[in-house]
Amino acid sequence: MFGLFRRPPPIRDADALADFIDQHAAFLVQKGIYEYSRARAAHYAKVLFREAEFQQAVEQARWRAYPLGLAIVAELVQGLVRPHVQDNRAAVHEAIVTLVLSVFDRYPVPAPLGEVAWSEARRELQLHLARIDLHAPKFAKDIAEPFARPYFDLMPIHAKLRASEFPTIRNYLRVTSCNVHDELTKRMDAPAIAALLASLAPLDATTAR
Question: Which residues is 11 bridged to in the sheet?
Fold first, then answer.
């Protein structure tokens, strides 16, 4: 019982950072899918969630959305460590990309997607991660913006029934990204993580810039 009042442990190593990215990426996308579906179904939510067809749609949605969550949380991490990277910006970015892809690779191919779709999801995630270092750090509320439409399109509710509700989903992503950013700020030792990531990057990445 007393464990409920303990603060989450600080993030000072790669394993802890990987676990944070994994857990919060999954939370970010799954919470929105489930809460939106319950709200949209209203009094019929219990019935809807028992239907096999809907359960399959939810499984597809959450696995397709998971890489979007990884990309968002990865950019939050990069924004917090960027002021501490000194001359190691390229190395730190490369290490973040490698770490996030290793988190993706923790999971076998999800049955609802299949190997081809899962491989394509990994490729798209890698492209998203590569773009993070091409611009200045964004505010947390703006990081989710490019992912809002793809995420909205994954909602397991018929398109005709959710046509006008994109702003709701976009605002959910923005607010929840800010909450994840706040949690990460409290827990992560940014200077230590920046130094650690620089040390983990391949040698050629340390000389890229």
Answer: 188
